Amino acid sequence: xxxxxxxxxxxxxxxxxxxxxxxxxxxxxxxxxxxxxxxxxxxxxxxxxxxxxxxxxxxxxxxxxxxxxxxxxxxxxxxxxxxxxxxxxxxxxxxxxxxxxxxxxxxxxxxxxxxxxxxxxxxxxxxxxxxxx
Length: 133
Prior knowledge:
Layout: H1 4-21, H2 27-40, E1 45-55, E2 58-69, E3 73-78, H3 85-98, E4 102-107, E5 114-119
Parallel strand pairs: 3-4
Antiparallel strand pairs: 1-2, 2-3, 4-5
């Protein structure tokens, strides 16, 4: 899997944060804690990065991604009781809009940390990953 070591490291940081804080805080608290943990682990990232969305080559607006790690991986955070299809659709839309190969959807709101690796199946580098969970 492309960027497996990097996604594994990010998930490890999220697990440390969830172990320390548990569930029940607003998303921004987890975002701040994850930034601290990723910095401690030597990961380069931008937080709340505003990225332009294009339609047919025309700028139609911007969205903020929670983290953009090592200029490769989008990380979208949630703090809800459970992830649902809308959260997954949002993460997939971001990957496609930003033309990224992989992202992480991480939920701190449940009793156990939830995470999903999300693949942009429209990206030419991801043809082998079209069928993944």
